[in-house]
Amino acid sequence: MMGAMGSFDVLPDSIACLILSKLESAQMVAQCAMVCHRWKTLARLVDTLTFESFKLLEKKLDKNRNASCLETIVTQMLLKTHGIRILKISYHPVVWPWIPNDYFSEDRVCQWLQHVNTTLERLTLVDPNRARPQPKKLLHLTDCKKLQWLNLCYGFIPVLPASPGRFEQLVTLHLDLILIYDSALQTLVELAPILEDLKLNSCKGLRTPHFTALKLTSLEFANDMDVATTPITMVTVNAPSLVSVSLSHVEELVMNGFTLQNLALLWHVRPNIRELPVLESLHISGESWALDCVTHLIRLGTNLRSLRIDAFFERKYPIQLQSLLRHLQELVSIHIGADFFECLQTAGGAGAAFMRMHAMVLPRLENIMVVISCGNNNCISVLVSLLKCAPALRILRIDAENLRKSMDNVMFFSNLLGLQRDYPQVKVSLACPQTLL
């Protein structure tokens, strides 16, 4: 132990501060500061602090375990430091949902921000305040001229202050469980001219947000309907550099898809997109989908490399495999969910003449995953079509966990063994109920 202490003592202050900044929580930094006078001095020079109520207040199980208790701890420690680059302050109330009026005071938060406004680069603030807006807090945030990464959790942003500053260096903005209205979101995005990454997780108050972000490359609306309760009617985005979009519980998306490479949609999105010339990954899942929306997106994605369809459709109709996929010459991986496979399966042998005239080849396809609920001959026909068209295929995974005992399903296993013999270069893996084996 003494040897370890001696080794640490010979380190220069810059290295010692870097080590202290890597500690998991501010509590550990405070404990180190109590070791000796040098460590107390070094603790004031750390540039990273994390305050988590679950860790700092874990031994206080009485009614005093509240936001004001954490405020005191943060204030006593933070204001002794000489400059913080990365700051995380998270208060999680004991009672869930949060206790009324149990959140940080705006004046106290402003005091913290004022102390770090010349050095702060990354901020995470979990403050369970939805009782009233805190405009002064937003003003002090714009005073943090080096701020590049901001994550706000809980809070109320109905409107922004009349004369706010700008987030000149802000690249990443994540809002979790924030009550924010359309106009406030639009203004907030406009105040961040180089914003590249915008994520909104289960934010209430949004109905038809419309915003312009010239540098934005990644956009995510991750709505948990247990929290948000109401889907967003429409999202309209003017972002000419947008590369990745992920939306859930958004009824309609309006955007220009010319630069989009990754698109993930959950729950019944009606995409209003004219072209997707460079789209590489398309992931569609969830309920209440219109089948024509899905087929429209697939047909737009001429350069797709990864296609995953886990959607459940309101109305199903037969889809001819070749007519839907033959243009996907760059496709490497495909995942076909149960409802989508049923539509392909229902088409069965129909369109045989079309298949002979328009032979499908997917030269780069290496991985196929299908989910089936009925093992009849049409199912085998679809699998045969996929195997024939993919000379580079290495893996075929079949999820047949929902198969039930029937003559068709018993024959399915025999036919599948035949496919394995005919295509020995393909590794076929099968998951199914033990009762059928």
From TrEMBL:
Gene3D superfamilies: 1.20.1280.50, Ribonuclease Inhibitor. It holds the Pfam family F-box-like. InterPro entries: At1g61320/At1g61330-like (IPR053772), F-box-like_dom_sf (IPR036047), F-box_dom (IPR001810), LRR_At1g61320_AtMIF1 (IPR055357), LRR_dom_sf (IPR032675). Residues 5-54 form the F-box domain. This is F-box domain-containing protein. It comes from Physcomitrium patens. The lineage of its organism: Eukaryota, Viridiplantae, Streptophyta, Embryophyta, Bryophyta. The gene is LOC112283082.
